[in-house]
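TA notes. Do not distribute before section.
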Amino acid sequence: MLGAADIARKAVLPVIAASRNGRLVALASRSPERAQAMLALYPDAEVADSYDAVLARPDVDAVYVPLPNGLHREWTLRALAAGKHVLCEKPLAVDAAEAEDMAAAADRSGRLLMEAFMYRFHPAMIEFVEGLREPMHVQSSFAFTLQDPADIRLDPTIGGGALLDVGCYTVSVSRWILGEPVEVFARARGGHGVDMTVTALLAFEKGETASVWASFESPEVQDLTVVTRDGVHQRARPFSSWRDPHDPYQLMVESFASSIIDSRPAHIPLSESVANMRVLDRVRDAIRS
């Protein structure tokens, strides 16, 4: 694991330890004390001196990258060059050009690279999407209030902003249901040097539409509504880490490990991740224009 991010501590460390086909070997962080505290429950894992020290270990087959968005490309490329498979936090990169570069590096290296969109693994979410017939409109929101002005998600130099952090989910689920948009309209409100709230309308080839909303400055909201020819279908908290009884993070890491062990394609192909980044780029372009 490269980095001691909160998402790693809360969600990914426990499920790697609990998984049927993986084990935690080493963690590196800019703060060794934080890394040591995070590994208190995992005595078999070691704190490494640096990210490069993790990549140099022969007993590490794969790395998880929960670093800030702006560092995903650099450390994914370095991990692939070191012969490691990579599970990279969402969004895969800060733009489509970076994502394409990462995908090409994975292809050259013969190693697996997968974006950690854990919600795509939950059986209830898969059943919801696959059960839709003739969808006409998708409405998706993901928002909450960021309280700390020093939060790295408010740093424009490392890929901060609501669109990349939570808007990536709303765009992803809209595309999962409707395909690729042909037109994108968007507006945003800024603050702290980043987009704090983003609203976008996606239009699709056969007249379907999607409304997506992402924010760092509202009460917490997370919802998905799909209007189809036969009714209105809703999914509460579609992007959350449900444990009922499934944990989508564990399903994700086990799927990733199985793809490595069995030499089969990742559940989320890189073509999907690159396509999602292209639409996020189009949203930003629409905001600027």
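Switch to the second chain here.
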Amino acid sequence: MTVPARAYRLEQISPRAYQHPADRAATAALEQIPYLDAVLRRLIQLGYERALRQFSLGAAVRLGERQLPHLWVLHREVFDVLDVAEVPDLYMTAFPFANASTFGAGKPTIVVNSELIRILDEDRLRVVLAHEAAHVLADHVLYETALLILLRITGSGLPVLAGLPLMALRAALLEWKRAAELSCDRAAALVTRNPMTVCSTLMTLAAGEAAEQLDLDAFVAQAIDYNESGSGLERLSRLFLQLGLTHPLPVRRVHELLAWVREGDYDRIVGGEYLRRGEEYTLREEADVASAHYADRVKGVFRDAGSSIQDIGQQLGEWLSRQGAGDDDG
């Protein structure tokens, strides 16, 4: 196991320091929707988050000093590197798909699937845990929890959801989620101080086999080929392929991460030059080409769902009023 120096800590690092422009654009679009946060918190108040938490307590194992202590140590280490004092509970559940998730708007909880433990060594497990810790630091948990709730109850016909613009809201949160994953991949590279281990982890998760049996250079070449080659129709097909996914495709994640490393931000941050918490609002909002591109893409999500930001905001406000929570939560 390769352990970063214990003195290595990104003191008071702001999530804005490594935020992907797609994440910045998607978050800004969600923040423009009137009543959105109030509605999402109302959904959580209705008990859906409580059900998720009780499932974790009842159908998973809480890890700690007596349950897989080596994993618990890695979990605490990554939060220490990100300079986050409060470490969330960590659970493991039996599931044949290698994944991890974070939920809990008030009290974050991280759940790892047992398949991760089977196929990843400790260096790559640290990558996964660092990625989830970055979600906590960036305060992604409200949107993450709301998306998880919507994915589970969409199409269930629950009367309480009548009047919500479910498809547009689900599409917008999915676009945000895919963008947020790119930011957290960057954070995992910073925590582990090894971007190639992040790429190796993504390759292993994609293949479902031990990384020692795979060729990372070939996978990186595949990522370049996927992102930079193909006809216009093939590129359009790739876009549609991702629309229903919670995560970008692994090859795209590798490409985006390595492009960021080549730009120099990774080395600069590891060297101690980065935005710290509390400094975010002293900066002028970026207006670069990348941010504008992703902002247009996010707006396209609403158009494709047959709504606008204003339409969704109005529907959310009407739903909130019918729930009798408009004055309290809005």
